[in-house]
Amino acid sequence: MRRTALDFERRSVVVSGATGNLGHAVVRAYLEAGAHVAIVARDAAKASALRDDLGALAGGADDARLLIADADPADRAAMDALVERVLRAWGRLDVLANLAGGFGTGAADDITTIRALWQRNVETVVVPAAACLVPMRARAYGRIVSVSAMTALKGGRNNAGYAMAKSAVVRWTEALAAETKDQGITANAILPTSIDHPVNRANMPKADPKNWVQPAEAAALILFLTSAEASGITGAAIPINART
């Protein structure tokens, strides 16, 4: 197994949205760094494909390094059950990487879209954190990173719901960081521009994906922010502008 500069060998990580466009790169990066990883997946077929793609990194029967939970990240009971599984399997929970979310467009008075994007981008961040904070506080150690977006900094035409939701993730991160900074826990957010993945390429065929954020770049930042070495960073919202 290849080891990265950051050592997660004795760490247990929960990743929501792991089967999404960024998830594969993040899960692989944690496993390559030595972590045990539990993923929250609502699509069993996608979760199975991810396990197959990871190959030996996922571990074997005597050392299962990848745990898959069929769960909704916005369901508190399901997240509590996942946390319990992680603690039984590995005895600790050190990191939460909140990748769940999704893009959508709609007018500023489109209440239905605004509500749906709030549920998709905010509840899927807050609920897993609430569950994971229980063992983190018990051990006085934890790292939480959430994926917001550059859109959080400025709304625009037909993106009110998305901008509101991603901005809320930043404000929530700042509040959580203030509440946990004396508990050995950090909370940060990353703000990427467009990420290079097949969906964005299909939706924006005229754009040059070489200017976009590469999944490995975002994964590297997430790993650093959730490492022991990043203990002095909390409440930050870090843009990833790539080459745009």
The main sheet comes to: 7 strands, parallel
Q: Using the CA coordinates, give the radius of gyration.
A: 17 Å
Percent helix, as a range, is: 40-55%
Spans of at least 5 consecutive residues whose pLDDT stays below 50 are none
Q: What topology, given as strand order, has the largest sheet?
A: 5-2-1-6-7-8-9
Beta-strand residue percentage: 15-25%
- Mean pLDDT across all amino acids: 92
Tally of helical segments: 7
Shape: globular
H and E string: EHEHEEEHEHEHEHHE
Structural class computed from helices and strand pairing: alpha/beta
Based on DSSP secondary structure assignment, what is the total number of beta strands?
A: 9
Distance between the termini: 34 Å
Can you offer a commentary on this structure?
With 244 residues, the chain is of the alpha/beta class. It contains seven helices and nine strands, in the order βαβαβββαβαβαβααβ. The chain has helices spanning 23-32, 44-54, 76-90, 111-139, 160-180, 198-203, 215-225, and strands at 12-16, 36-41, 59-60, 63-64, 66-70, 95-98, 142-147, 185-192, 237-240. The protein has a seven-stranded parallel β-sheet, with helices on both faces. Strands 3-4 form a two-stranded antiparallel sheet. Helix 1 (23-32) packs across helix 7. The longest helix is centred in the middle third of the chain and has 29 residues, at 111-139. It is globular. The chain starts with 11 loop residues before the first strand and ends with a strand.
